[in-house]
Amino acid sequence: MLVERGEPEEELRNVARRRWRRTPTTEETLPASIDVQAVDPVDIAPGDPLLAYLQEVARPVELQKVELESPALEEMLAAGVELAVPLVTQGELVGILNLGPRLSERDYSTDDRKLLDSLASQAAPAVRVAQLVREQELEAQNRERIAQELRVARLIQQTLLPKELPQLRGWTVEAFYQPAREVGGDFYDFIDLGDGRLGVVEGDVTDKGVPAAIVMATCRTMLRAAARRIDDPGRVLESVNDTLHIDIPPNMFVTCLYAVVDTVTGVIRYANAGHNLPYVRTENGVEELRATGMPLGLLPQMTYEVKEAKLAHGDTMLIHSDGVAEAHNPRGEMFGFGGLIGLMGTYGHADRLVERLMSELAEFTGPDWEQEDDVTLVVLRRSSSAQDASSTAPSQGLLAEFEVASVEGNEREAMDQVVAAVSKLGLTTAKLDRLKTAVSEATMNAIEHGNRNVAELPVVVTVAVDAGALRVKVSDQGGAEGDDYLDTETPDLDAKLDGLQSPRGWGLFLIENMVDELHETNRDGRHTIELIMYLEGDEHAGT
Amino acid sequence: MPGREFEAMVEVDGERTVISLHGDINAGARERLERAYTEAERAKSDAVVLDFSDVDYINSTGIALIVGALARARAANLPVVAFGLNDHYRQIFQITRLSDFVGIYPDQATALQAAQAV
Lengths: 543, 118
What we know:
Shape of chain A: elongated
Helix content of chain B: 40-55%
Oligomer: heterodimer
Largest sheet of chain A: 5 strands, antiparallel
Structural class of chain A: alpha+beta
């Protein structure tokens, strides 16, 4: 093997020596003084026939003798290329070594060609490896750049979406936003307009990533400013459109639904800049709310039709972005507007529409759904009776919101405050005891795991009653997106008693057994455990 | 309502050692509970009786401390019974299966009687 490998190398050295012997002495002794003229690089179009020819020939080619209709060939000849040495490895052309006239002004000899051919056959694999490494480097850089852009886009969106939902007497408001992997430009907003009026916005910027996020941020600011200045929703959209279209990048626009809700009378005045039509579920069925208007930012001086609707007690309005209706199942079928209308028509008033919708959607798309677009939902539901709306009893809505510092032992304070907040609900002792344990454990978890015992980081607790259930949310600042630490695996007592497992690890197991539902979310840098206890019905079995 | 600091009293009653637990069983109870259990072990009784009648708060760390003590008792083949747990904590002992390893009795008399029998 050694000999076999040695032979060509030996020959190469001989060839090299012979070649050097033929070159003038001055070149040998003073190589720096050689008047070497680099041949200009030539761009070759991917489909040029010269490429196929060189790949096929795979040895040094005297270009003058090539008969081929090829722009590259002409260009190379014009650039002074005499000899083209294809670098071919595994049958693939990976480069071309272009040589101008020989410095000695003689033609390239057979030995020269042999040397170049040998050089090419050895250089080609190395060039290919270098190309692959470079491609991978570029790919890695590209991936990192995309990831960084996504982080920025997410940050912009998360910063600007409302942190709290409006608490309105006689109304239940739900909002949901789930970004696609690439982060689209969806947004929603609530604007307190005073006198019991609420501005509700949902928008969708074409494009994705950072550009969409910046346009979203701009549009949101313009909408807020216009909404506070102008009563008429159509005029609000006109104003935003006129300002936005001047600065918005080409080929980008924003679809937007803007509604002004009178929370006392239930009257909704709305205008629509090309956004999906909202649905209203009444006792007579599901209706679309139609109003015409061009998307924002496309053309100046557009006008927007204003329509009016009234939500009676018990009616529900749903505003939704493309991500829902355009979600596909594994067979390539779309969830569609029909799917949404069907669901609106059948959901029970006690249900939370967002939860119901997202669970239906998950069932439709299957577990491997690669979400193509952001999903944004805003739901406004008017209480089912006027009495509910005017009742002063804390039977609906937020009962308490408070913070405790992340200090061991403060779980007891959280527990006591929750007990005080629910005192008027008339919970049985058993339910109250279970609630106490669940709140205490969830708070301990937030203090220790989420906020890592950093006293300055607050644990935020909200207590609310909604749709016949008590909902306690315990939030900490812990964990990155997707970093869920809720693990309700059953602790193995035998292993613990045999010393094979730590005696600890009971917290989440206890919580799960104390409440009717347990949900975990990790959004906007906030990790939340929601404890749900049904106010009516059977006592929780607890086992 | 602030928590109550944990205390434990150990009393040897013939063949049985009674540990009376008072206050909150949480992380703050570790040292005193372990000390009390060690004292009970030294008494070389035939059974340990845990009195929970003055305990109204046990959290998951407290459960872990009880598991730790039970592990020691199991290694020493020492039976453990308990009384005085309210309905809520009795349910928690069932959920966690602690009740499979600790006999739970409604009051001191039945617990002592049971401890006598083991």
